[in-house]
Every structure is written in C-alpha cells, then in structure tokens.
UniProtKB/TrEMBL annotation:
PANTHER family: NACHT DOMAIN-CONTAINING PROTEIN, NUCLEOTIDE-BINDING OLIGOMERIZATION DOMAIN-CONTAINING PROTEIN 2-LIKE. It comes from the Eukaryota. This is Uncharacterized protein.
Length: 422
C-alpha cells in the first residue's frame, strides 16, 4: 500500500496520531483519513462541528457523494458536474480542505466539474454508497449492481467490489452473488482442463475472474473468511489460484487450516512467492505426495517440491501434489530419482546400470495410452519436461521418467545422449 503516495500519506498521518496499531485494511485507512479531515475541520471551526464527531454521523452525506462516484465510475469518468454536487456545509468544507477539486471543463466551456482527490478515493466512496444502500434495502432486490452486468464492467469496478468486502461482512454475500451471476452468464466457470491440468487451460477472462473472486475473499476481515469460503468456492467452481500476495496471507493466517472444504484444483504462482509460504499452505491442507511406487508420503518428506512448478488436486477427500513441469534446474537429481524409484508399469522396470547392458541403443518410450483407471502419481500429469543429459545417470533418470509421464506437451532434452553413453 505504501507504493501509492496518497496511501503512504494516510499511513503517516495515522502513525503521527500514535494510535496503538495501524489500520489493517485499505478501507479502514480511508475511513481514518476522512475522520482526520473531519477532525481538522472541527478544529478550525469548533462552533459548527464537535471535535469528537465520528465519520459515521455523516453516513447519509457521504453516501450521496458515493452515488455520484459510483455512477461516474460506471461511465469511466473521474469527475461529475458541479451542478450535481450536494449542498451543505460538510460538502463545502470537504472542498475547502482539498478532498475534492473544482475546475472548469476548458477555457471555452466554463461549466464547473468536480474531481476526486484520487481515483481510489472515488472507488472507496462508491463502495461506501453500496454498503449503505444494502443496509437500507435489506429485503429488497439489489438493482444498483445491474450496471456491472458483464465481467468487463465488473473488472473495471474491481477495486470498488474489494472495498465493499472490506467495509461490510454482510455485503460480501451480495458481491459473490453478483460474481456468480456474471460468471454463469458468460461461462467463466465452465473450465475445460486437459489431461495435464494447468492455468494455461483457462481463458484470460477465466483466469482474471478467479483472481477477482480470490481478491474479494481475502479482502474480507480474517474472522469472516471461513464463513464466506463455501460461497466463494461455489462461485469459482472449486478452482483456486493464489498469487504471491494471497499465498502470503493464506500462510500467515493458516487460512486453509480453518476450513472444512478444499478446492478441486489449487494453483499457486511461483513468481516472487515465498517458498516457505507454499510449504505452510501444504501443511494446512494436509497435502500428500503419491510416488510412482504407489506410496502416499507426507509432504514433509518432499518439502523441496515447493520450489517446483506444481499444483494441488483433490482426490477422495485428500489433497495430492502434482508436478506440472520437471526441470533439473529446480528439482535436483536425488529428489527426482526417489520420486520415480519404482515403476507403475511392471512391464518396464527401471534401468539401474546402462554400463552393464550389452545393447546401449535403448529407445525412449512414452506411454500415451495408459488406462485412466490407475491412480495418478505425482509425475503422471507433468506437462513439460526440460532435462539435461550429460552423464549416464542423467540418461538413466530420463529413461525411467518418460514412461511415467502420460501426456506431455513439451519435452526438451539438452546435451548429447551419445556422449553420455560413451
């Protein structure tokens, strides 16, 4: 948050006030910031506003501004006509302290328009309006979200939806209901995974839809996440993607340790992700590894797999770790050798020592037509193989590995097999 100058200023103001702790959400930062402005106005004019008056006394006034902010965002505008600006002392004072900026449209068009201090302020106030409307219209059909009836429009309003989730636990259900409507309408949760599941099987909009839903989940207060998790899983059709930020939050709060249900597929971004966070998530999910010998091993034994390109898949109420890509740059020789130490197919025993084999001209085989009835082990769903063959041991590893990979998309073998055999 500190990367945004305005948010950094807000944090500094909170720090200056020497509060016991800083706000834990963006929404709370904006609430405190507006409260600071109100206190500042009260100090300058104590006859009109008491110094201890809360922001929540002005819910109605802020909601009016929020409605203007919301409507402007729907039209991709960062301003609105001054003629629409509500009248009253509060609004005039907010302009005076710089919360809004008033200017003319152009040198030729003298009409006044009102700009927000920052787009994020506009998004926060739009979310404030939504939350207040939900409080007033508890038993009525929510119609004001109809302006976001496509995913493209909802994606543009993503920050507003996230602010809503931060501001009100009661409003989270409405947000997920809206996302369900959009997702079902546009088929965003009708996934078509290949035999080697990957985020690459998703369309761009499906990928972004899942991330938006995950964003909304983790914008909820930590104490409320377990309650909305079931609804969240339903909206994303039990497929979850965690980027580095969400992996960190899930690990530090042990989120999955407090849930009763798990996603069918869990994909984690490897870029800039703390590998210890991934390991913590594995522990919380009680993840296991099914080796090629058919043994189910605790993930602690294969903790180094967190450095690999992997995903989790639920099967028979257990979370299994599957490798998506095998590369010697990430997985060291001994780890790979142990994972494939015993074959699934007894007709093709592993090669232990090529030096004792009279015929070194051994063909590398791929079993593409395996029966899907057998239990999938940790390398059976590998999509890419990228290995270097420099020694006899490398060739042995390659020879034993490839028959276990059922449907690879891309295989790259570097080095000279002939040199290795010689």
């Amino acid at each position: 948050m500190a990367e945004i100058p305005l948010l950094l200023l807000m944090l500094c103001l909170q720090w200056k006030k020497k509060k016991p702790q800083l706000p834990t959400s963006r929404a709370q930062i904006y609430v405190e910031f507006i409260q600071t402005l109100l206190n500042h106005m009260a100090t300058k004019d104590s006859d009109d506003v008491a110094t201890d008056e809360s922001i929540y006394k002005y819910q109605e006034e802020l909601s009016k501004i929020g409605k203007l902010a919301f409507d402007a965002l729907l039209e991709d505008c960062l301003h609105f006509d001054f003629t629409k600006f509500p009248h009253g002392d509060l609004f005039e004072k907010l302009i005076h302290v710089g919360f809004f900026q008033v200017s003319k449209r152009s040198a030729l068009n003298r009409e006044k328009i009102v700009y927000f201090l920052h787009k994020s302020v506009q998004e926060f106030l739009a979310a404030w309006f939504i939350v207040q409307e939900l409080k007033v219209k508890k038993n009525e059909t929510v119609t004001f979200l109809s302006g976001m009836d496509t995913f493209k429009k909802s994606r543009k309003m993503a920050e507003v939806l996230k602010f809503v989730c931060e501001l009100s636990s009661d409003a989270v259900g409405i947000v997920f209901d809206h996302l369900r409507y959009v997702g079902e309408k546009e088929g965003l949760t009708n996934y078509n995974f290949t035999r080697t599941p990957s985020v690459h099987d998703l369309s761009g909009e499906q990928y972004e839809f899942i991330l938006l839903c995950v964003d909304c989940l983790f914008c909820c207060p930590a104490s409320n996440r377990p309650a909305v998790y079931s609804a969240f899983l339903s909206r994303v059709n039990h497929v979850v993607i965690l980027d580095e930020k969400h992996s960190s939050i899930a690990a530090k709060t042990h989120f999955f340790n407090n849930t009763d249900s798990f996603p069918n597929y869990l994909f984690c971004s490897r870029w800039n992700t703390n590998y210890d966070d991934l390991l913590s998530i594995w522990f919380d999910l009680n993840a296991v590894v099914l080796t090629c010998s058919g043994e189910i091993e605790d993930v602690k034994k294969y903790a180094d797999l967190r450095h690999a390109d992997f995903f989790l898949k639920k099967s028979e109420k257990r979370n299994f770790i599957y490798l998506r890509c095998i590369t010697i740059h990430v997985l060291h020789f001994n780890l790979l050798s142990e994972l494939i130490s015993a074959p699934v197919c007894p007709s093709q025993p592993p090669v232990d020592n090529l030096g004792k084999n009279e015929d070194n001209n051994i063909a590398l085989s791929l079993t593409e037509n395996r029966s899907d009835q057998t239990q999938q082990h940790c390398v059976s769903l590998v999509r890419e193989v990228d290995l270097s063959v420099k020694k006899v041991e490398d060739f042995v590893l390659l020879k034993n590995l490839l028959p276990l990979v059922t449907a690879p998309r891309d295989i790259a073998v570097w080095g000279s097999v002939t040199d290795a055999l010689e």
